[in-house]
Amino acid sequence: MAALGLLAAGAAFAADEASDEARLRARLAPDVAQQVSAVVREARAAGLPTDPLIARAFEGASRGADAAGVVGSVRRQAGALGAARGALGAASTADEIVAGASALLAGVPADSLARLRVARPGANLVIPLVVLCDLVARGVPVNVASVAVVTAARAGATDNALLRIRERIHTRIENGGAPAGSTGEVVRQWLQESPAKSRRDAAPNSERKKVP
Amino acid sequence: MTDARDDDTRHEPHDRDFDEQVRADYLLARPIDAAARERVLAQLAETGDVVAKGEEPKRASGTSGWLGWWFSAQPIALRPAWALAALAVLLVGSGWLGARFATKARVSVPVASVPDAASPAATATGSPVTFVLRAPGATRVSVAGDFNNWDAEATPMTHTGTGDLWILNLTLPRGVHRYSFVLDGSEWRPDPSAPLAADETFGGHNSVIVVNGANGL
C-alpha cells in the first residue's frame, strides 16, 4: 500500500514537471526554457513552490527581457524562496514563502522575517509581508519599514489594521511627507490610539489559527 | 395659442395703425417719473404691501407664515460682478468636488486585496475581483499577471464608455498574485490602488493582490 502511494506521488511529481516544461517551451526560446526548467526542477525537488518561478520567467518574456535577464531573475527568485522558507520556518505556507521571498529580494534582511514570525506566532504572515514590501517600494528605508511592521505586529495589529496603517503612510507620502518620518509617525499614532488588549480582542479568529 | 396678428385681418385699417402706435409707444424708453413712483409707493404702503425702511415686515402667525415666505416670490437685488464671482466659485467648487469624489470612487473600488474569508462570493478556488484603472488617453488596456502567464494581450479591460475608466471583473484563484496594467500594448503600470511588490526585476514595479478562498489563507 505504501509502495502504491509512493508510486502515485512519483507519477504526480513527473506529471507536474512535464506540464511545467511544456508551458515553458510554449512561451520561451528553447535555450531559455531549458535553463529555466532546470531551476524549476531543483526547486520542486527542494519542496519549494514552482509557480512563482514560471511566472517570473513569463513576466520577463512579456516585458522584453533578454535570456540572461530572465534566467538570472528566476535563479534569484528560487534562492529567495529557499531563504524565505528558512527564515519563516519549514511549516510556512506557500503564500508566505512567496511573500517572504519578495521581501528578501527587496532587501529586507532575513532576520526581519524571523522576527515577524515570532511577533505573530501561529498567524498568517502574508499581509504583513505584503505591507512591508509595499512600504519599501514607496521609499521607506528597509530598516524603518521592518521595525514598523514588526512593532505593529507585535502590538497585535490585525491584517486590516496593517492595511490601514499602510494606507495612512501612503497618503502622507503622497502629500509630500518623508517616507521614513511618515512611517514612524503613523505607527506611533496607531500605537497610542489602540490599546494592545483591545487590538488582541479585535483580532479575527483567522489570524490566530495555527499555521498548518 | 393663437397669434394676435391672425386677428388683424378682421380689423379696419385705422385700427391696425392704432395698434402699431400703441406697440411703438410701449417699446419706447421713457425717463422714470419720480413723482409717480412716490405716489405708487404711498398707495402700496397704505395697503400694507410695502414695508417702510427700518420697519419689521409683518408675518403671518403659524407654520404657513414662514413656509409661505419660502414659496412666495421674493425680490433679490444682485450686483452683477458679485453674482458672476459667486457663480465662478460655485462652478470651481463643484468641479473640484466632482473630481475629488470621482477619483475616490475610482481608487476605492475593492480589489480584493484584503482577504475576506466570510465573503459570500468567495469559493474554495478563488474570489471575484474587480480591477479598475483610470487611464486618460489610452486606447486599450489589459491586465497581465501571475494568473494569466503574464500575457499582455490575453485579458483586456473594458472601457466604461464615459470618461477614461477601464474595468475588468475576474475570478482569481486564492493566493498571492503579482500583476500590472498594460496600456496600449507597451506601457506597464502598477495599480495605484493596490500594494506594490517591492522588487523591480524587469524595470518596473508590479502590484500585489491577495485573494482569499473559502478556506482562508
Uncertain spans of chain B, ≥5 residues at pLDDT below 50? 1-12, 49-63, 98-120
The gross shape of chain A turns out to be elongated
> What is the oligomer described by this structure?
heterodimer
Strand fraction of chain B:
15-25%
Structural category of chain A: mainly alpha
What is the alpha-carbon Rg of chain A in Å? 20 Å
Whole-number radius of gyration of chain B?
35 Å
Give the overall shape of chain B, derived from the CA principal axes: elongated
* Largest β sheet strand count, sense and barrel closure of chain A: none
How would you spell out the order of helices and strands of chain A? HHHHHHHHHHH
Helix fraction bin of chain A:
over 70%
Which class of secondary structure composition applies to the elements of chain B? alpha+beta
**What proportion of the residues of chain B is helical, as a percent range?**
25-40%
Number of DSSP helices of chain B?
4
Secondary-structure element pattern of chain B, one letter each: HHHHEEEEEEE
Map the helices and strands.
The complex is a heterodimer of chains A (212) and B (217).
Chain A: H1 2-27, H2 30-45, H3 51-62, H4 67-88, H5 94-105, H6 110-119, H7 126-137, H8 142-154, H9 159-174, H10 179-193, H11 196-202
Helix pairs in contact in A: 1-2, 1-3, 2-4, 3-4, 4-5, 4-6, 5-7, 6-8, 7-8, 7-9, 8-10, 9-10
Chain B: H1 13-27, H2 34-47, H3 63-71, H4 80-107, E1 126-134, E2 141-145, E3 158-159, E4 165-173, E5 175-183, E6 187-189, E7 207-211
Antiparallel strand pairs in B: 1-4, 2-5, 3-4, 5-6, 5-7
Please give a structural write-up.
The complex is a heterodimer of chains A (212) and B (217). Chain A contains 11 helices and no strands. Chain A has 212 residues and is mainly α. Helices cover 76% and strands 0% of the residues of chain A. In chain A, helix 4 packs across helix 5. Mean pLDDT of chain A is 88; it is low at 201-212. With 217 residues, chain B is an alpha+beta fold. Chain B contains 4 helices and 7 strands, in the order ααααβββββββ. In chain B, strands 2, 5, 6 and 7 form a 4-stranded antiparallel beta sheet that branches. Chain B has a 3-stranded antiparallel beta sheet with strand order 1-4-3, with no helix packed on it. Chain B is elongated and about 90 Å long. At the A-B interface, helix 3, helix 4, helix 5, helix 7 and helix 9 of A face strand 5 of B.
